[in-house]
Design goal:
The complex is a heterotrimer of chains A (354), B (373) and C (340). With 354 residues, chain A is an alpha+beta fold. Chain A has nine helices and 17 strands. Classes of the chains: A alpha+beta (354), B alpha+beta (373), C alpha+beta (340).
C-alpha cells in the first residue's frame, strides 16, 4: 500500500517539466511496479501501467490519464552571467519575481528569479508587472562559471519545498497534476484487493500542459473502449469567482459538457451518490481543459469522462490541495472500475430519451 | 426512394414536406455536445434510405448509401468512389452554469457568439423547450454612462420564472426561442447554420445518385472545434469529401451608404446560389474539386458563387487531415445573421444547393482525382 | 568535404527553388521542380492526396529505422478576395504575412500576372495599414481587363541576391530546407535506415501536409528542416543563435518540445563529426516537427534549423556556411544507426 502523503511530497520535489518528464516518471514507475502487471513507456515518454482484469478474452480496457508533466521555465540565452528564460506551459509572470528555482544545467544549480531595478527595464515595463522576457535568473556564479554549466535549452523548475499547511492540506508546486497521479496510484492500491472484469491502463501522460500529446498518442496506441482524465480544477480562493470554483475538502468534481460522455457522467454520479462520496458537478460548456480534449477525438472517437480535484492557486508554486479529496477521487475510480461489467459499452447511452 | 439515372438533372423543388422538415430542424434545441433532438429527427428521416446507419461514441450519425450501378462508371477503375458528405447537427447556444436561485441562472456561451446579441431575448431550455428569457435591466434604472457599455455575459442571466422549474437544472443547454417562418422568398429561423446542411444531406440520401457510394456524416460539435467530423472522417476513410454548411452573407449597406451593399467584404450574397469555397481559415479546398463543382454549375445552368477566401471554417477543416489526407471541398448555403436569434436565407439558394450537389455527384468520375493536386 | 562545384550546384538549385512561386495549397510548380531534382536519386517517388512529394531511399535493416525528414514546399502568399470596378484587387493572406513588409511589395500570381501592394489613405499615418486597407494593383484599367479573379493566389516576387557568404531571397523559408533535403538525398550512401524525404505542403497554414504524410509513413524518428530566427541583429529578439554559427538544433519552439533523446543524438553526432552547431529555443513559431511528433502512437521528433534573418519578409537572409554544415549534419544523422 502506498503511503500517499510521502509519495505525493516526493513527486512534487522532482523535476518533470513538459517534454522532459523522466525524473518524475521513474519515481511513479517504482511506485506502480508492485501495483501493475506490466509497465512500459510510450514513444512520447508516457508511463503505461497495465492491470489485467478477470473477464474472458477479448477483454475491454479503459484508460485513466493523469498527466505527470508540470509547467516551468527554460533558458533562452545567457547574458553577462545571468539567464534569460521563457515559459513552458501557462505561467503567470506575476508569480515569478523572488521565486527560488533549480536550473538543470550540467548539474542542478539553485537560482533566484529576479526583477531588475526599474531603470534597467524598458520604459513600458517600469510600472506594472514585468513580463518573463525582462526577468532574469541569478545562480550566484560569475559569468565564466555560468557559461561552463548552463546553456540555452536547459530547464528551470520551481524549488519551493512541499508545505504541510495542516495534516490534510498540502501546498507546493506541480500539485497540478501530481495530485491526480497520487489519486490514480491510490486507485491502483485499492484494486489490489478488488476484483475487476476490465483491463485497466493507468497512464501518467506527458506534455498535457503544451500539446496534450501524451494522452493523444497513448489513447491511439492502447485502443481503450473509454477514457477518463483525472486533473485538477479551480478551488474557491480570494479573487477567484465563486460561481466557477469548488471547495477544497468537499470531494472531487464530475465534469459535464461536450467533452464528456453523458452516460459516463451519469455512471459516476450514480456511483458517488450510492457510495456517499462527496462530489460536485462541474459544468464545462466548451471543453474540459484536460487530456480528455485529445482523447475524445482519437481515431474513431472515445467516450470520455473528467474527474477533477479542487486546487487553490493553480499554476503557482504554492498550489494547495486536500489529501482527503485525492483519496476520494482514487476511491471513486476504483469503485467505478470494479463496477464495470463486460457488457457496459452495450448499455452506455448517449441520449436519456433517444 | 427515387432512382435518378445519370445525366438527367434533378430539378429539386422544396414542397410542404421539406418546409415542414426545415421547421422541425430549425426549432430543435441541439447545442454542441447535446445534439439528441436533431439526431432523432435525422434517424427517422434517413432510416429507409440507407444501407447502414449507426451512432458513434460522440453522437455522429454515420450513414452509408451504396451506389446502385451494376457497372462502375469508369472501365479503368474497378470501384465506385466513396464520397463523404458532412453537415453538422449542432448549433451555437448556451449552457446554464450556476443557479442563482429563484429560477435565475448564470449561463455561458457554447460556440462563437457576439455577446451583444443576447439581451432581451426569449430562450428555450433543453429538449423540453422550457420557456425562459434573457432579461435586461429597465432603461429607467440605467445611467447614460452605463448604456455606453455592452451588456456582458457576466451580468446577463437566463430566467425561467420565480420558483424555478423542475425541468431545468445547471448543465442544461438553451437556445434562442425563434419560431421558423417563411418571409416571402426567405426562410427565417435560428440554427439555419447548419440545419439547412442537414436537410440537404437528407434530400441527397433520399435521391442518391447511383454512381457513387455516399457516406453521410451528420456531425456533432462542429461549432466547438470540428470535433465530430474529425472522428467521422477517420471512421469512413473516404476517397473525397464535401462539407455542406451555411456561410455568412454580409450583403448589407455600409454606414455611409457609399458603396454597393457589402462593398469589398460581402463573403457571399443572398440569391447568388450555393457558395463554393476556394479557401477558408481551416481548409485550402482541393482545386480539382472546386473546378468540378464550378463546371457542374455552369454546364447545368445552376446559379452559384464563390465564397470570398479567408476566415471561418467547416467540417472540411478536420476531414481533409484525416489519416493520409482526404481531398475536400466545402459548399454552403448563404445566410444572413448566423449565430444570432434570427437568421435569414433564400429558399431558392437552398434548392440550388441541393440541385448543384446532386448534379455534381451524378457526373462524378474517379478521374477527377487523376491529376496531381 | 567542401567542394566548390557542390557549392555552385547547390546555389543554383537554391536560386531556382526560391524564385519559383508556391503559396500554400498551390505548390504544383515547385513540386515539379523538386521532383525533377530527386526522381533519379530515390528508390521511389510519390505524390499523396494533399500534394506532398515523398521520396524514399533505402530499406530498413536490422538496427535501422524508418526516418522521416520534412521540409516544406509552400511559402507565404496572398489570395484575391474581390476585384473592384477599377480593377484593384483586395486580398487576404495565406500564412503569416507581416503588415510591415507589404507596402510597395511586388507579388506574382500563378497565372503570371505581377502586381504592387498599395494601401488606402490612413487617418493615422503612424499606424500600419490593416490587410483590408491594402490592395494589389496589376495595372488593369478596369474589372474587365484585370487578369486576376477571386480565388487566384500569388507569392511575393523577389530575386535571389548573394552578399558574401550570405544568400538573400524571399521563400528561404523553407526552400533552403528543401535544398538541404535534396542535397542530403544526393549524398546519401549506404545506410541501415529507410529515409522518407518529405517535401510537405501547407506548412505555413498549420503544418497540414506533414500531418497526413506522417500518418501514412508512421516513422520511428522524425526531423524537420526549417528556418529559425537569429538573435544577432540590432535590438532584436534575444536568442543565442547567430548567422554563421552553424545549423541550430532545436530544443523547443512555440508548438513543440523536441524529444530530449533526439536533441542529444543530434548534439553527439555533431560533436563526433566536428560540425559546428547552436542550440535553439524559439518563442514564436513552429514547424512540421510538431505534426510529426503527435502522429499515431507518437514519434520522437526534432528539428534542424537554418538561422535566418528577416523571416516572412521578401528578403530572408541565411548563411551558406550554415547551410553546408546542415547538409553535413543531416547526412551524418541518417548514415548510421539511430541511438536514442
Amino acid at each position: 500500500m502506498t503511503d500517499l502523503l510521502p509519495f505525493l511530497k516526493s513527486l512534487i520535489s522532482l523535476s518533470g517539466l513538459s517534454g522532459n518528464e523522466k525524473p518524475v516518471r521513474d519515481q511513479i514507475a517504482s511506485a506502480w511496479e508492485p501495483l501493475t502487471d506490466e509497465l512500459s513507456v510510450s514513444r512520447l515518454g508516457s508511463l503505461h501501467g497495465l492491470k489485467r482484469g478477470n473477464a474472458n478474452e477479448p477483454r475491454p480496457s479503459l484508460l485513466i490519464a493523469a498527466h505527470m508533466d508540470s509547467i516551468g521555465l527554460m533558458v533562452t540565452c545567457l547574458t553577462h552571467g545571468f539567464l534569460r528564460v521563457t515559459e513552458i506551459g501557462g505561467v503567470d509572470a506575476r508569480v515569478l519575481p523572488g521565486q527560488r528555482v533549480t536550473v538543470h544545467g550540467r548539474r542542478d544549480l539553485p537560482g533566484i528569479i529576479v526583477q531588475p531595478p526599474a531603470h534597467l527595464l524598458p520604459p513600458e515595463s517600469q510600472e506594472g508587472p514585468v513580463g518573463t522576457a525582462h526577468l532574469l535568473v541569478d545562480i550566484g556564479l560569475r559569468a565564466g562559471g555560468v557559461e561552463k554549466l548552463v546553456r540555452p535549452g536547459d530547464l528551470v523548475s520551481f524549488a519551493q519545498e512541499p508545505i504541510e499547511i495542516k495534516p490534510d492540506l498540502l501546498a507546493g508546486h506541480s500539485l497540478d497534476n501530481r495530485a491526480s497521479v497520487a489519486a490514480l496510484t491510490h486507485c491502483l492500491d485499492e484494486l489490489q484487493t478488488r476484483a475487476h472484469a476490465w483491463d485497466v491502463w493507468a497512464v501518467a501522460t506527458t506534455q498535457e500542459e503544451v500539446t496534450l500529446g501524451g494522452a493523444r498518442t497513448s489513447a491511439f496506441q492502447l485502443e481503450p473502449k473509454l477514457a477518463i482524465a483525472v486533473d485538477v480544477t479551480w478551488a474557491k480562493s480570494p479573487g477567484s469567482p465563486d460561481h466557477k470554483t469548488f471547495s477544497v475538502g468537499k470531494g472531487p468534481t464530475l465534469g459535464w459538457g461536450p467533452n464528456i460522455h453523458p452516460g459516463l457522467h451519469k455512471a459516476f454520479k450514480d456511483l458517488a451518490e450510492r457510495l456517499e462520496i462527496p462530489h460536485a458537478v462541474e459544468v464545462m460548456p466548451k471543453h474540459s481543459g484536460t487530456d480528455a480534449i485529445s482523447m475524445q477525438v482519437v481515431a474513431s472517437g472515445l467516450p470520455t469522462m473528467v474527474l477533477s480535484i479542487p486546487l487553490r492557486y493553480m499554476h503557482s508554486p504554492v498550489e494547495m490541495v486536500s489529501v482527503k479529496d485525492i483519496t476520494r477521487a482514487g476511491h471513486l475510480l476504483a469503485e467505478f472500475i470494479a463496477s464495470l461489467e463486460a457488457d457496459f459499452m452495450d448499455r452506455l447511452q448517449l441520449d436519456e430519451n433517444p | 426512394m427515387t432512382e435518378i439515372s445519370a445525366g438527367q438533372a434533378w430539378r429539386f423543388r422544396a414542397g410542404a414536406a421539406q418546409i415542414g422538415l426545415l421547421k422541425k430542424l430549425s426549432e430543435a434545441v441541439a447545442v454542441s455536445g447535446d445534439e439528441g433532438e436533431v439526431r432523432a429527427i435525422v434517424m427517422g428521416q434517413i432510416r429507409d434510405h440507407v444501407d447502414e446507419v449507426h451512432v458513434d461514441a460522440l453522437g455522429n450519425v454515420l450513414a452509408t448509401r451504396l451506389g446502385r450501378d451494376a457497372k462502375p462508371p469508369s472501365p479503368k477503375n474497378g470501384t465506385r468512389l466513396r464520397v463523404m458528405l458532412a453537415a453538422h447537427m449542432d448549433e451555437v447556444g448556451f449552457m446554464l452554469t450556476y443557479d442563482d436561485g429563484d429560477g435565475i441562472y448564470r449561463f455561458d456561451l457554447v460556440g462563437g457568439m457576439d455577446e451583444r446579441q443576447l439581451a432581451g431575448k426569449a430562450v428555450w431550455v433543453g429538449r423540453q423547450h422550457v420557456p425562459g428569457v434573457i432579461g435586461a435591466k429597465p432603461i429607467h434604472l440605467t445611467t447614460p454612462e452605463e448604456r455606453k457599455r455592452a451588456l456582458s455575459l457576466d451580468v446577463l442571466r437566463i430566467d425561467v420564472g420565480p420558483g424555478g422549474n423542475k425541468g431545468v437544472k445547471v448543465g442544461d443547454r438553451a437556445t434562442f426561442a425563434t419560431p421558423f417562418a417563411r418571409l416571402g422568398p426567405s426562410l427565417r429561423g435560428k440554427a439555419l447554420d447548419d440545419r439547412l446542411g442537414v436537410a440537404t444531406l437528407i434530400e441527397l440520401l433520399r435521391h442518391a445518385p447511383p454512381n457513387v457510394d455516399l457516406l453521410a456524416a451528420f456531425t456533432v460539435q462542429e461549432e466547438v472545434g470540428l470535433r465530430g467530423a474529425q472522428v467521422a472522417a477517420y471512421t469512413f476513410n473516404p476517397d473525397l469529401a464535401i462539407a455542406v454548411d451555411s456561410t455568412p452573407a454580409m450583403d448589407l449597406p455600409a454606414w455611409d451608404d457609399e458603396e454597393q451593399p457589402g462593398a469589398g467584404r460581402y463573403n457571399t450574397r443572398l440569391d447568388g446560389g450555393p457558395a463554393i469555397y476556394v479557401a477558408d481559415g481551416a481548409t485550402l479546398g482541393d482545386p480539382r474539386l472546386v473546378r468540378w463543382l464550378i463546371q457542374t454549375a455552369e454546364s447545368q445552368g445552376i446559379p452559384s458563387q464563390l465564397r470570398q477566401p479567408g476566415g471561418g471554417g467547416t467540417d472540411a477543416g478536420a476531414i481533409h487531415l484525416a489519416r493520409g489526407g482526404v481531398p475536400s471541398v466545402s459548399v454552403s448555403i448563404p445566410g444572413r445573421y448566423a449565430h444570432t436569434a434570427a437568421g435569414l436565407a433564400r429558399l431558392s439558394d437552398w434548392q440550388n444547393t441541393v440541385r448543384l450537389l446532386h448534379a455534381a455527384l451524378s457526373r462524378l468520375e474517379p478521374e477527377v482525382l487523376d491529376e496531381e493536386r | 568535404m567542401k567542394n566548390a562545384n557542390t557549392g555552385a550546384a547547390m546555389k543554383s538549385l537554391i536560386q531556382k527553388l526560391v524564385e519559383t512561386p508556391g503559396p500554400p495549397g498551390y505548390e504544383s510548380l515547385i513540386r515539379a521542380l523538386v521532383r525533377e531534382a530527386v526522381e533519379s536519386l530515390a528508390d521511389e517517388v510519390r505524390v499523396d492526396a494533399l500534394g506532398n512529394l515523398i521520396a524514399v531511399k533505402g530499406a530498413a535493416t536490422a538496427g535501422g529505422r524508418r526516418i522521416m525528414l520534412a521540409a516544406h514546399l509552400d511559402e507565404i502568399g496572398v489570395i484575391a478576395t474581390h476585384i473592384d470596378e477599377k480593377g484593384f484587387i483586395r486580398f487576404t493572406t495565406l500564412g503569416g504575412v507581416g503588415r510591415t513588409t507589404c507596402t510597395g511589395g511586388r507579388v506574382r500570381f500563378l497565372n503570371g500576372a505581377t502586381g504592387v501592394i498599395g494601401h488606402e489613405l490612413l487617418s493615422d499615418a503612424s499606424k500600419l495599414p490593416a490587410f483590408d486597407q491594402m490592395f494589389i494593383d496589376v495595372g488593369a484599367k478596369g474589372k474587365a481587363d484585370c487578369p486576376v479573379r477571386v480565388g487566384d493566389v500569388a507569392a511575393f516576387d523577389r530575386l535571389l541576391a548573394e552578399m558574401g557568404s550570405r544568400l538573400v531571397s524571399k521563400a528561404m523559408d523553407d526552400r533552403i530546407g528543401v535544398a538541404v533535403l535534396v542535397e542530403t538525398l544526393r549524398r546519401m550512401g549506404e545506410s541501415p535506415n529507410q529515409v522518407h524525404f518529405v517535401f510537405s505542403v501547407q506548412e505555413e497554414v498549420g503544418t497540414r501536409g506533414a500531418t497526413t504524410a506522417a500518418y501514412e509513413i508512421d516513422p520511428e524518428v522524425g526531423i524537420a528542416v526549417d528556418v529559425t530566427r537569429s538573435g544577432d541583429t540590432p535590438k532584436g529578439v534575444k536568442m543565442d543563435v547567430a548567422l554563421g554559427g552553424g545549423p541550430a538544433i532545436k530544443v523547443r519552439d512555440s508548438g513543440m518540445l523536441s524529444d530530449p533523446r533526439v536533441v542529444d543524438w543530434m548534439v553527439r553526432t555533431a560533436d563526433e563529426g566536428r560540425i559546428p552547431y547552436q542550440l535553439e529555443v524559439l518563442e514564436t513559431g513552429t514547424t512540421d516537427a510538431r505534426a510529426i511528433q503527435l502522429t499515431r502512437a507518437g514519434v520522437p521528433a526534432g528539428c534542424l534549423s537554418i538561422p535566418c534573418r528577416y523571416i516572412h519578409s521578401p528578403s530572408e537572409m541565411v548563411d551558406f556556411g550554415d547551410v553546408e554544415n546542415a547538409v553535413r549534419l543531416l547526412g551524418a544523422l541518417i548514415a548510421g544507426s539511430v541511438e536514442l
